[in-house]
């Protein structure tokens, strides 16, 4: 076990309990995401890793999609102990949500439990009245329906996930992985989230604001190789100044072609991609080094600490110093 991980264990407090809902018509992929991220034993993470349970909203054997039958650990009483409740894709956007489930979610939220929905699971939160006056997202196929059915919700279109602090919503299927890793990153830090991502064999981070839809997600082979080499170069040289013209030359493309291909490959612009990667690198330095804020700004390409503080606060709702203090407070030395 890495030494740093040891310092984050044995806090004397019970580890957080994640409860995922199960029901007839359960979306098995989204359910599997919750199990994979929060429910697997991870001895490398130490003793304070998540506890996990499955709560059925109906009695007896459940029938999930794909011909799967299952029995849950318990019923809605499990929500009374949960630190976070995960709601996989609901069985149908037009299907009514049981009042007992709505009441249990409201009670859990009132006592401070976090609520996380994947894909159409947002309709359960909406039916419980927990998203009124808040921002939320869902799969692009359902955004119009969500807005029409629940006009009090500020529906955010075409993002991977929306973090409102105590309530988090994600787009379809794989975006649930991104949101779950985002939660792990919040709870245990970048190192832990990267470790889980490696086990999943996926990239460790996709910014929640990235688009859900790509016009042509698979680049031509030659262009894909060029962009792959460019991404490697940028990760190694984040501190340098980069312009569209210099990046296009590096990729061996004209500027218009480069911008189009970059957008198709990443769902964002070079400037936004660079900003996001620099913020991730800055956060890693804050968690894993004793570098000053000035040094971190210089090494991540922000030119000065004031610029770093501005973007960091916009992105993480904390200053770099506050983030470092909050992260260190979770570690038991």
UniProtKB/TrEMBL annotation:
Keyword Hydrolase: no
Residue ranges of coiled coil: none
Lineage, highest ranks first: Bacteria, Pseudomonadati, Pseudomonadota, Gammaproteobacteria, Enterobacterales
Gene Ontology molecular function terms on file: DNA-binding transcription factor activity; sequence-specific DNA binding
Protein name according to UniProt: Transcriptional regulator FtrA
Boundaries of every HTH araC/xylS-type domain copy: 228-326
Entries under InterPro entries matching the protein: Class_I_gatase-like, DJ-1/PfpI, Homeodomain-like_sf, HTH_AraC, HTH_AraC-typ_CS, INH-QAR
SUPFAM superfamilies attached to this UniProt entry: Class I glutamine amidotransferase-like (SSF52317), Homeodomain-like (SSF46689)
Keywords: DNA-binding, Transcription, Transcription regulation
